[in-house]
Amino acid sequence: MEIDTGLEHKFARFGDGLTVTDDAVIEGYASLFGQTDQGGDNVQKGAYRASLKALFETGQRVKMLWQHDPAQPIGVWDEVREDDKGLWVKGRLLETTQKGREAAALIQAGAIDGLSIGYRTKRASKNDKGQRLLTELELWEVSLVTFPMLPSARVAAKGTTLDAEDAWRSIAEVFDSARQEMARR
């Protein structure tokens, strides 16, 4: 049974703007405005504004995950902001965790070179080319990923509206069930 959380993902290569320092600080663009992905979606400037404001006002942070797995946080995003180009992030890999150390090593070796956002669409419209113009997104997380593409998108599940806590719980249950099933095989 597939649980529809409404969570979607978009990939972006770290690109020229990414830096990774010796103290495991990473920064770069997680999303670029005005670029249509393979799914026909185009994130518009200002799409993250309300979500970032709400997170700031409640003292919450965008999560840094490994491969979109909510059971594997690997660091913290210290800065997440929109500028004229897109969604810029700066954070620290937590090398006190095994996955954080692994992620830092993989980035430095060039094996991992991408970011992907996890979000839920709040407002969108279609243009005359059939593209979905994303004008308001609820940003949940920015992950380090193996297979980034720019422009490109991976859609997880679309549809129902769950509150964030219930959605994360549902996502975690799906991952736990998949792991258990794989262990049985």
Automatic annotation (TrEMBL):
Occurrences of domain Prohead serine protease (ranges): 23-163
UniProt KW keywords: Hydrolase, Protease, Viral release from host cell
Biological process according to GO: proteolysis
Keyword ATP-binding belongs to the record: no
Top-level division of the source organism's lineage: Bacteria
Pfam families noted in UniProt: Peptidase_S78
One example GO MF annotation: peptidase activity
Database matches in NCBIfam families: proheadase_HK97 (TIGR01543)
Name of the protein described by the UniProt record: Prohead serine protease domain-containing protein
Organism: Falsiruegeria mediterranea M17
